[in-house]
From TrEMBL:
This is diguanylate cyclase. It is an enzyme of class 2 (transferase). GO terms for molecular function: diguanylate cyclase activity. It catalyses: 2 GTP = 3',3'-c-di-GMP + 2 diphosphate. It comes from Thauera phenylacetica B4P. PANTHER family: DIGUANYLATE CYCLASE DGCM-RELATED, REGULATORY COMPONENTS OF SENSORY TRANSDUCTION SYSTEM. GO terms for cellular component: plasma membrane. PROSITE patterns: GGDEF, PAS. GO terms for biological process: cell adhesion involved in single-species biofilm formation; negative regulation of bacterial-type flagellum-dependent cell motility. Residues 187-316 form the GGDEF domain.
């Protein structure tokens, strides 16, 4: 028997209460499912994900990001963004965090692993607000393989594969750039064009492979004698260029003479003797790319005509 103090709900009311309980359980189940779905997405993402608080400290992260940087998950929660960001100072990073707006940021960068090595990263940042707190959501994609491929493509597009010298297209681009720079700053610019002597005889006597080895060996000699900032280019078969930013005529003539002596002194076994002839010029006022190259070519021709294995110049006045 029911007491009057504890009445059973009327059947209609009881059904309504059951519906409400069922509905709440259903909604809670859905929310739990959603939470697990988002959690799975976060945890299993192929990209590193890290959420920062306003102070730049790790608020949340996933295993992938910890693996990317070489930390354990426990260690990750002790870190700030400046423990892995490569380049900006903690102050700059704090300023970046303050400035991140609705659009976020997307850029390529590098991050420092626990062992100090660098990893190439494509980074997407966005701002969010959670329980009244500003959070920065960062998705970090490891782009090491892409960067290696890009560097390889750039190398192949700009380098002569036999000698490792800059190829003609890239050398021309650099020459045009340095001419503009010399004009703008009023600095000297030296250019040396050189060509191996009687190279056809070397090929004919020792074969094409021996000729190739000589070209590579000459490039070694050149590499050892140039300064950082000088550019070595392969202009044609056995014809090379040396771009000397900041060098006046005396410097450029000196560089060419050192090279001439270095090549002559080098042992290119089985080839008995290798020499080269050099045309040296310095950019004249109002002179353009074509006129400068032409003058270097004329100077080189003069060296060949005068007996080879020598350095000549042609004045730009
Ligand atoms: N082994 C090799 N030979 C090359 C390459 N490119 C061009 N040559 C050869 O270089 C030779 C150049 O010959 P020439 O232009 O007659 O010049 P040279 O014999 O050096 O004579 P001078 O320049 O007048 O001293 C040719 O036999 C080309 O086949 C290369 O990549 N490898």
């Amino acid at each position: 028997m029911n007491s009057t103090c504890d009445p059973l709900p009327a059947p209609a009311l009881r059904a309504e209460a059951d519906d409400a309980v069922f509905e709440r359980a259903y909604v809670e189940g859905l929310l739990r499912d959603r939470e697990s779905l988002w959690h799975a997405l976060f945890a299993q993402s192929r990209d590193g994900v890290v959420v920062l608080d306003e102070a730049g400290k790790v608020y949340e992260t996933n295993q992938r990001f910890a693996d990317l940087l070489g930390y354990t998950m426990d260690e990750m929660y002790q870190l700030h963004v400046w423990d892995w960001a490569h380049g900006p100072s903690p102050e700059e990073l704090r300023a970046m965090i303050r400035e991140i707006g609705d659009d976020g940021h997307h850029f390529e960068t590098q991050q420092v692993r626990k062992d100090g090595s660098l990893v190439d990263i494509e980074l997407s940042n966005s701002r969010t607000f959670f329980r009244g707190q500003k959070l920065i959501f960062c998705i970090c994609r490891d782009i090491t393989a892409r960067k290696v491929a890009e560097r390889r493509i750039r190398y192949l597009a700009t380098t002569d594969t036999l000698t490792g010298a800059t190829n003609r297209g890239e050398f021309s681009r650099r020459l045009a750039e340095e001419i503009a720079c010399a004009r703008q700053h009023g600095t000297p610019l030296g250019l040396v064009m050189f060509d191996l002597d009687h190279f056809k005889r070397i090929n004919d006597s020792h074969g094409h492979d021996a000729g190739d080895a000589v070209l590579r060996g000459v490039m070694e000699v050149v590499r050892q004698s140039v300064r950082v900032g000088d550019v070595i280019g392969r202009w044609g078969g056995e014809e090379f260029m040396l771009l000397l930013p900041g060098s006046d005529l005396a410097d450029a003539l000196g560089a060419a003479e050192r090279l001439r002596v270095g090549i002559e002194a080098q042992d290119f076994e089985p080839v008995e003797r290798v020499t080269a002839s050099f045309g040296v010029v310095v950019l004249a006022p109002a002179e353009g790319f074509d006129a400068l190259v032409k003058r270097a070519d004329v100077a080189l021709y003069r060296a060949k005509s005068a007996g080879r294995n020598r350095v000549e110049t042609v004045s730009g006045d």
